[in-house]
Amino acid sequence: MDSIRIVIAHPHPVIVRGLSSVLEAQREFKIVARCADVASCIEAIRLFRPHIAIADISMPGIGGLEILAFANSENASTRLVLFATAVEARDLQTLAGAGACAVLPQDVDPEILVQVLRRVAGDQRLRSSDRDAFEQQHATVERVAPALTDRERQIMRLVSEGLSNKEIGRRLNLTDGTIKVHLHHIFEKLEVTNRTALAAFAMSQDDRSSSPVDD
To answer: Are 82 and 101 spatial neighbours (Cβ–Cβ below 8 Å)?
Structure first.
């Protein structure tokens, strides 16, 4: 199998080095460019036509969404994976429609990152629609999510916002132990193993439960 060509675009060199270290340890990935701003990322996509571009959504320059627009209009074979500190659920659909195949938290577990990139690369070879690929990537979670209780969906959304168990407990007036029990049930139902994976998946869910709920 040919190598999966990847462009990394992030303003912080430490994060770029960390991503490079993780991906270079996998034989199927080949990093073809490392960029510090949006303009250089777009130029790298133009020159190297990578399978995947990993970019920070808040990069300095002409705006992170410009990368999505460029890939969609001029280089549809490049699929976009975005890093974001926090993304509202309602904004995720906008990013999906703009061409993002995945939106991950900055502290994503390396194993989860590798798994997501493999799925994105696989989708890239199978279909040309970015939106279809995005929906396919989250299809399993979309089917299972309705099985969550209102409280579990509420906790899942707070995890996606980066809150700790204690912070969630204070927000919902629940004990730390109760939060841990709820998270255990959520992990089992969604078949995820850690908070990072849960946060990545939670951002694909619509905000279906905005009213207060009982335990």
So the answer is: no
